[in-house]
Amino acid sequence: MRGRPFFVAARGYEWQELTNRFDMLLDVRNVIRMRTFFLVGASSLVLAGAAMVYSAHTLAQSPASTPTVSPQGGAAGQIASPFGAPTQRSGLNIVVLDPAHGGTDPGARGTGGIRESEIVLDLATQVRRALELEGFQVVQTRQGNENPSFDDRSAIANAQRGAVFVTLHISSTGLPGTVHVYANSDLATVTNSNGLIPWDRAQAPFLGLSKKFGDLVQGMLVQRFKGSPETAQTAAVRQLRTTAAPAIAVEISSIIVEDRSELDHMAPGVADAIARGSAAFKPSYVVPGVPGALP
Question: How far apart are CA 140 and CA 156, in angstroms?
Fold first, then answer.
């Protein structure tokens, strides 16, 4: 009987210890639950943010903002029909600059080893600088000694909105010190039964705008290079035919000069004329309200 109070006290102590440990376990469990809740909530926010970024990226890449074209031949080589679609005026923002030839295709060659592909690439650097000073964004079809196909070059241009296309050449004939601008010759617009325009006639809806663009650039060039034509000429330029935008070819005469420096000295004036002509063309430029619509 004398030991019973001690036994009761001992049992009470053990029970208190068990209660304290159980409370600690509850506290630890609550901490774990709170951390789990925090991590799950943070993960949800990350996933939601990722979904928003993905949605914005998807909208930016959707067909509604980027024309869909195919550089392949046959049935796949088509663009959307322009007929019957609404149009709207918009700003000219981009100039796609195409230094012709490149890679295994040197273009025209001079007697002193001058290569057209090298000269036009250097010329493109000066043209780009002049265009950027006028506020244009410039996209080049090649940056070095590559040789994209005609269709690859056109595909770069056709993927833009609010753009014109300028391909740079050095002629193998003509009066040295002159510059000629060409727009594509007449192309009958043909629409297939599925409402698409064949790839090799992509320029047809833009012929009027291309000629106007060419006239403006040629008008700037004749002020600097006497003997040059006063207006743009038309010719069957292969690179222009598959370009779904106002497009011109600028050709400097000629590769037969004895010293390349004669051509290099023309570069600043050519660059300035292209930039000023592009700026003057802005008020006349029309961007289709729907990709592929008639300009």
Answer: 9
pLDDT tens for each residue of 182-237 = 999 988 777 777 778 899 999 999 999 999 999 999 999 999 999 999 999 999 99
Helices (H) and strands (E) in the chain, counts: 7, 10
pLDDT at 19 over 70: no
Task: Assess if CATH 3.30.420.340 describes domain 74-288.
Answer: no
Please give the Cα distance from 290 to 295 (Å, whole number): 10
CA-based radius of gyration for the chain: 34
Residue 268: what residue type? P
Cα→Cα distances 115→52, 104, 148, Å: 50, 11, 17
Half-sphere exposure of 213 (CA within 13 A, CB side): 27
Nearest-10 Cα torsion for 28, 33, 38, 39: 100
Q: What is the largest CA-CA distance in the chain?
A: 132
DSSP class per residue in 156-219: HHHT-SSEEEEEEEE-SSS-TT-EEEEEEPP------TTSEEEGGGTTGGGHHHHHHHHHHHHH
3-state helix, strand, coil in the chain (%, to 5): 45, 15, 35
From CA 173, how far away is CA 14, in angstroms rounded?
A: 109
First to last CA, the chain: 111
